[in-house]
Write a structure and sequence with these properties.
63 residues, mainly beta, Cysteine Rich Protein, two-stranded antiparallel ribbon
């Protein structure tokens, strides 16, 4: 028997504002606060020297 899945509402990317089912929690000194970014926006942010990864948010999460 596998684990049950729970589904949540999709969230929008903090930069491009498109709804996504997977977002990455990232932070840079310029932004200050933690943001949820899609994979495309995260790729651009990853190139910054003060980039910090803080986890992955998923719409479909296993319990």
């Amino acid at each position: 028997m596998g684990k049950a899945q729970r589904s949540r509402e999709p969230r929008e990317c903090s930069q491009c504002k498109l709804e996504q089912s997977v977002l990455y929690r990232v932070k840079t000194q310029a932004q200050g606060d933690w943001l949820f970014l899609c994979s495309d926006c995260q790729k651009h942010c990853k190139q910054l020297p003060d980039y910090q990864y803080g986890g992955t948010w998923k719409q479909k999460k296993r319990n």
